[in-house]
Design goal:
Helices cover 94% and strands 0% of the residues. The protein has 88 residues and is mainly α. The protein is flat and about 60 Å long.
C-alpha cells in the first residue's frame, strides 16, 4: 500500500517537473494567441488593443470573483449530493 502511494506520488512529481520545463513555451504560445485574438477583435469591433487591455485591467477582478463563486457553489452542491448519497 505504501509502495503504491509512493509510486503515485513520484509519478505525479515527475509529471509536474516535466510540465514546469514546458511552461515558458506554453506562456509564449498563449501570448501569441492572445495577440491574435486582440487583433481579430480590433478588426471586427473597432476597439483598439489599448482599449481592450484597459478594459481588461479594470474588470478582470470581477470575473475572478464571479468565477470563484461559481466554483464554490459547484463544490457545495457536489458535497451536498455526496452527503445525501451516503445517508440514504
Amino acid at each position: 500500500m505504501v509502495a503504491g502511494i509512493s509510486i503515485i506520488l513520484f509519478s505525479l512529481y515527475a509529471e509536474l517537473a516535466t510540465l514546469s520545463k514546458d511552461l515558458p513555451l506554453f506562456e509564449k504560445k498563449a501570448e501569441e494567441k492572445l495577440g491574435q485574438v486582440h487583433s481579430l477583435f480590433e478588426k471586427t469591433s473597432g476597439v483598439t488593443v489599448a482599449e481592450q487591455k484597459d478594459w481588461l485591467e479594470k474588470n478582470y477582478s470581477k470575473g475572478f470573483t464571479a468565477g470563484s463563486d461559481v466554483v464554490k457553489n459547484l463544490l457545495l452542491s457536489i458535497s451536498h449530493g455526496i452527503e445525501l448519497f451516503v445517508f440514504v
